[in-house]
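Fold this sequence, please.
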Amino acid sequence: MSNLRQKNLDVFNHFWGFLFLAVFFLWIKTFIIQLTQFDLGLENTIQQFLLFLNPLGSSIFLLGFSFLFKGRKKYLGLIIIDFLLTILLYANTLYYRFFNDFITLPTLMQTQNFGDVSSSVPTLIKPYDILYFIDILALIILLSLRFVKIEKRVTSKRKVAVLYSAALVISMINLVLAESDRPQLLTRGFDRNYIVKYLGMYNYTLYDAVQSTKASAQRVLADSDELTEVINFTKANYAEPNPKYFGAGKGMNVIYLHLESMQNFLIDYKLNGEEVTPFLNSLTNEENTLYFDNFFHQTAQGKTSDAEFMVENSLYGLPQGSAFTTKGLNTYQAAPAILGQQGYTSAVFHPNSGTFWNRNEIYKSLGYNNFFDESYYQIKDENKADYGLEDKPFFDQSIQFLESLPQPFYTKFITVSHHYPYNMDQEEATIAPHTTGDRSVDNYFQTARYADEALKQFFTYLKKSGLYDNSIIIMYGDHYGISQNHNKAMEKVIGKEVTPLEGAGLQRVPLFIRVPGIEGGVRHQYGGQIDLLPTLLHLLGIDTKEYVHFGTDLLSEQHKQIVPFRNGDFVSPSITFVDGKYYDSNTGTELKEAQIDEAKKVRESVENKLLLSDKVVNGDLLRFHIPENFTPVDRSKYNYNYYSNKALE
């Protein structure tokens, strides 16, 4: 027995034994904290395994920096590194308890955040928090009582290399599994919760530092001279408002309905002789509603966030990642800020996490007064969708918040029920699925019907409340719902081959604009999400000449019907460029070499337009441009946290 005890103690005669003990403690501690203190929404076994695995590689890598020291300093260095990592964990825990979010480098630079939290810190601390530091205390005791002997010999570089190789292998396994469960995790930057869930707290901190540094570098290298070319371009391409519509909705409320994954082929589509979206279909003939049947989404990796970004700013989303997540602190002249200076109150309603797509940060930069995220809603098992609250209870529960807003208001409702993978409680389904054999495609029609019913229900409320007669209502699809990976099934749906040209056509999403008093009808002009902001502002009677907008008023006689996609492809009534080839949009035939000179000029103008927009976003160029009668947004005025707001009542 004494020999066994002696062998166990001999382990600590080497620094390696002390290091492995510290790694084990930090690994398990981090896993338990991530599991119990953060609401990361673990959905499957892979995510549970990754949450367990992800602290291991990081712990080995970071504590391994203690090999930079020698002798006693090596042991002291390990404890200090361990302590700093624990402080990082604990600081994020306190921040999460207050904001339901994780610390970012930009938030550390915003001193008003400390004021928000400092007075609440005592209430955030729990008695069991002492356990965060119990492993460090144990290491110090082992060292102080000489259970661990100080090893003075120099550690072999080969052994250190093996250690870091092991950390790298573990981290690569972690990343591969994470990408398999959530593709494009790092490039799209969905949500800080996702990064922590899949990669762990320490890797999240590294990711945030890289993203913040990259954004800062782009901003620092930009200067006001770059804005001259941009302003010259937007002024040269400005479309004068149509006198018939300019000011038609002056002073009215604005209600945006952001329709998740709603593609335009659903309009008037019948499945087994039954309309899939009967309510939306009825709006194509409503007397005060304009329906645009050649309206396209223009999103890239940012998907929903790209759609919002374009709708609010008339700036294109980025070619990689999401401007919402990487450019959330930029200067913008967005719809909420513009209308706020016209006496409007603004609000977003979205029953998902406020951190998803970094909404709780970028909405401040856009100038939104209110953001009602999932914390404001009663979400239970019986009404929960994959990404929040089902649409029908979402609209029902939003009414109390909508009615609390002073009028006129500018609002946006972001729905979630019609979201991939289109899961649907069959007891709530009112239409049978399709029969293509592709589950996602088949279920798409059931959730589309549910979303349509929820919209009808909300419109009933708007009519009863009187808001219907005093509001501009705009409904738009945010992006495709069925990707090209499902083309074989889609061919069964639409009854023809999905060629590259047909695939471009499937990027149409519905757009309905209802303005009390105007003459409705179906409009066939081509347009995209980039065009919505100038269209809306002109309907409200607001001059947009001084603003940097890359879209133009859909109702203007000068609107150019060329719709760029984020990858440089484009569609228009006459020419379509897709997958490197030019097509006649009417006949579907590929253009011959002698016919494409003009088409190439259009392509060059599209690429230039996208390039200039990217310059504005990446360089934060709008900080150098203040339109007449516009006051820049002060982010510090906004606080969307439900619990903070309740405390202030």
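The chain has a mean pLDDT of 90. The chain is about 45% helix and 10% strand.
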